[in-house]
């Protein structure tokens, strides 16, 4: 285990408690008593989170198990504005187009594109200069 770059004394009481709690969760895997997958299932935590905690513990010690970063938007509302919610709900309630209508639209688009390509090709051909 690497030396911690962040001493435990610099953590808040809540961060120290969090680190201790996480250590108690991953300790059986560190001691090779059970697998990381079994810990994840038992505690209903994603296997990736368990892997990350073990990696952080091995790299930084107990302090590596504490959340030290806070969200940049902490304390700010992350709710959508009411008009956005209304718009989304309205879109969700609309009947989606049928496959046949999409096929028809695609066919029309293809025909229009083919006409445009033909027009471009015809405009590029040199005049026959009166022949």
Automatic annotation (TrEMBL):
Signal peptide: none annotated. Residues 24-71 form the Insertion element IS150 protein InsJ-like helix-turn-helix domain. Pfam families: HTH_28. Transmembrane segments: none annotated. It comes from the Bacteria. This is Insertion element IS150 protein InsJ-like helix-turn-helix domain-containing protein. One of its GO terms (molecular function) is sequence-specific DNA binding. InterPro entries: InsJ-like_HTH, Trp_repressor/repl_initiator, WH-like_DNA-bd_sf.
